[in-house]
Amino acid sequence: MREYLLTIALAAALCYLVTPFIKILAMRAGAFINLRSRDTHLVITPRWGGIGMWISMSLTLLVVSHLPLVAKSFGREATGIFLAGTFIMILGALDDMYDLDSITKFAGQAVAGGILLLHGVQILWLPINGIFILPPSIGQLLTIFFVMVVINAVNFVDGLDGLATGIVAICAMAFFGFSYLLAVVNGLNRAGAPSLITAVIIGICIGFLPHNYHPARIFMGDSGAMFLGLLLSAAAITLTGQIDLNAITNQGSSSPFLPLLLPFSILAIPLIDLGMAVIRRLRAGRSPFAADKEHLHHKLLSMGNSHRRTSAILYSWTAMFAFPTTIAAFAPLWLALLIGLLILIFSLVLLTNWPNRNKQLIKVG
């Protein structure tokens, strides 16, 4: 655990220190956009936060590759995740500058998924009637589809200062807890790569959040949102798509469907927001990717919540789905439900803090 904690701390420190230089670079390169009607910020803010995240990840991996325990996580899968992450970060950085069309971005996301496939990151089975081994072609299609869904889910939720950064950090914490327990407690070595990747995600999000929290001095942009989405999806695939289901359920998991449920419960808030946006826009006869101001964070803001309170509410909702699912894999179900209930109560306290909400509502009105 000490080596993983060192990995998190190193990634956080590097991202915190690198980001101010990326901010200057982004402003000079013109990697920013003018204010739009759907934006919640009031000043022109640079993007390209994803470049700082990538630099931090690269330097962190270079250093921790010399640690005795963490070094065992490096292999074909980790290499593929790094290469795919590099590709998607470059694509996102270009989009931050030139506003690429949706087809180009989708094609690039599919290519990133293909890079993962070439390095063995692929969904191999599903827990249907026991273990259902997927035909290679079906597994490949599901892998690319899942990668694209997660990338766009993170991208969609990135609409408020610090929101996506915090949500991704919470998701990565839940994934890390699950993968670490599998790798260290239960001796499943194949969980080493997701433990390493999620530790790096946690670190870069912690390091980036002080610069990105309201009022944000820099945005992660598509370079960061797609980069984090790619890392999360790859970690989920290596964690739940390639670990022996019997090895998990024999350890007392509350449900044989938990390996399939885990990524969707941990990523529940981004996926729900994505699904609602697509349905809403299709019903209105618009493109599912046409921007609007009806995301979950917009609705919470319209209720009178401040930027920071809105982020805190969505953080708590993410934790409410993510942490109990992870706990349920290694502890009694009642304990997982209790943790979820306590987080729900906390979120309701935030949501019903009427004095602060009314003040914000008056200010907005």
What layout of secondary structure does this protein have?
Blueprint: H1 2-29, H2 49-64, H3 76-98, H4 102-118, E1 125-126, E2 132-133, H5 136-157, H6 163-185, H7 192-212, H8 221-240, H9 245-249, H10 258-266, H11 268-283, H12 296-302, H13 307-328, H14 333-351, H15 354-364
Antiparallel strand pairs: 1-2
Helix pairs in contact: 1-2, 1-7, 2-3, 2-7, 2-8, 3-4, 3-8, 4-5, 5-8, 5-11, 6-7, 6-8, 6-13, 7-8, 8-10, 10-13, 12-13, 13-14
Describe this structure in words.
The protein has a two-stranded antiparallel sheet with strand order 1-2. It contains 15 helices and 2 strands. Helix content is 71%, strand content 1%. It is globular and about 50 Å long. It has 365 residues and is mostly helical. α1 packs antiparallel against α2 (49-64) and α5 (136-157) packs across α8. It starts with a helix and ends with a helix. The protein has one domain (2-276).
How would you summarize this macromolecular structure in one to three sentences?
The chain is mostly helical and 365 residues long.
Span between N and C termini?
Answer: 49 Å
Task: Give the rounded overall mean pLDDT.
Answer: 84
Backbone shape: globular
Give, in spatial order, the strands making up the sheet with the most strands.
1-2
How many H/I helical runs?
15
Strand content: under 5%
Number of domains: 1
